[in-house]
Amino acid sequence: MHNKFEENVKKILNRTGANPKKLTLEITESVLVTGFELARAKLVALIELGVTVALDDFGTGYSSLSYLRQLPVQHVKIDRSFVKDASLNDDGKTFVKNLVQLCNDLGQNVVAEGVETEEQHRLLCEFGATSFQGFLYGKPMDLEHFENQNLA
């Protein structure tokens, strides 16, 4: 919410020559509570630069379906607690399935966080999710270890 945030991002992109299309900035719902219209304007400015914006941990804080409709975000990251519930009970399955469908209908990519099992991955694919994060795909590691990985 810094008053020159989007201006600073633009300066950094220009100075470094980084491709803005390869930059995804994640915001949390709590940022929206401090000033929705200001946050929305900043997000629009960032998107105009070519930056991608993701709404992180959706559903854990001050969730509002109107955020999904009004915010110019390209990705909605479903919190790991919902992913876990989807593999444990029918209510959890229904909730995640409907949330994925809603985001897809709004043209937003769903990123499922905290995917730890093949069953969770299968369910999320069945629901229409196409992007995933979690220990099923890799665990946190330092840069040196990452660079020495055989990713073939």
UniProtKB/TrEMBL annotation:
GO terms for molecular function: cyclic-guanylate-specific phosphodiesterase activity. The keyword Glycoprotein does not apply. InterPro entries: Cyclic-di-GMP_PDE-like, EAL_dom, EAL_sf. PROSITE patterns: EAL (PS50883). It comes from the Bacteria. Pfam families: EAL. Transmembrane segments: none annotated. Keywords: Plasmid. Residues 1-152 form the EAL domain. This is Oxygen sensor protein DosP.
